[in-house]
Amino acid sequence: MKQLKLLFTAIILLFSAVSCEETDPYSYLKIQGTWLLQAVNDYPVDTDTRTVAVFSEKDACTVALMYDNNGSQKWQVNDGLSWNFHGTVLEISGMDANNNVFVQNNTFLSVDDNTLVFTVNGVESQAGGSTGSYNCKFSRVLADSRNYSGTWECLHADGVTNPGIRIRLDGNHAMSVFSLENGTWQQKLSAEYFTYNGFIAINYTDSDSGLPACGTWDYDMAASGNSVTWLWTKKSGETQNTMLFQKVNE
């Protein structure tokens, strides 16, 4: 009888230990959505370092960030990833920009309506793993119903008034950039853009080097009467650049 009691006690302890590692359904549902990286180890990140992570139902995952390869830059959207959440383990896996299979192991810390925090413990990859531990804090990106399509004229760029720049967005990731020359707007380049309700990434070809390039900006939009303005801000260390656009009524 004593042995039977010990056996039942062991079973109860075993199931108690397993249940502690069960996935919290509240956290699992809260993690789902789009997130923008704000800070690493409690230090705000530069604009070019921002990362977008999308955790969808059925464990599908998308990660987007600026990828730099020997001076060639691109906003890379990797939508073929998977995520797995169990206990305190938040795992992201799939194939990276260089077609190497990887697994990123993270320790989940907290999530609510606005913030997701986890610790990156390391990455295992065919190209070689990485070690080290750092905390990442993300803010939730809410659904965005604003209309970015149309032509926008730059009113100010780092203190320069009316620099003679316009951009035109078609609503399908295509952007054209124009320069005012002898009273006529001349198209200077075509670009690809991605918006995340407060953050924009732009892929284009650098006119000087001929290499792929990427620009990233945080932004805010305001409307007053018939006027709509769009303020872009880029932070790099102690330096901050700004551009203010106004929508052109065409």
Automatic annotation (TrEMBL):
Keywords tagged on the record: Signal
InterPro entries, alphabetized: Lipocalin-like
Top-level taxonomic group: Bacteria
Signal peptide span: 1-21
Residue ranges of every copy of the Lipocalin-like domain listed in the record: 31-118
One Pfam family it belongs to: Lipocalin_4
Name of the protein in question: Lipocalin-like domain-containing protein
